[in-house]
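re: the backbone from monday

yeah here it is again, tokenized this time
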């Protein structure tokens, strides 16, 4: 693989820095170009707006999970039944 010429790398870094700095320069009467293109800010701590379709799907999944957990919790185990899993430690193999 060919090595990148260090001068090209330096030029690239300078161009990236210049591009980032250009976003900070005011280009509109109200402030920066990035601020003009940004959506209006929300109050700090306010939850983000959720589209109605996503909110319905989340509610549906929460209900499904609650129903499943109710079935699991209501299942009665007979007294003296075996545990679901048993941990049996094994000796380490010799190298």
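seq for it, each position gets an aa:
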């Amino acid at each position: 693989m060919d090595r990148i010429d260090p001068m090209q790398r330096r030029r690239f870094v300078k161009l990236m820095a210049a591009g980032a700095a250009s976003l900070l320069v005011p280009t509109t009467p109200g402030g920066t170009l990035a601020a003009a293109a940004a959506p209006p800010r929300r109050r700090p701590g306010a939850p983000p707006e959720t589209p109605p379709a996503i909110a319905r799907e989340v509610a549906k999944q929460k209900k499904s999970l609650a129903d499943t957990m109710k079935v699991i919790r209501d299942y009665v185990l007979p007294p003296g039944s075996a545990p679901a899993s048993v941990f049996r430690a094994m000796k380490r193999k010799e190298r």
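The mean pLDDT is 79. The beta strands are 26-28, 31-32.
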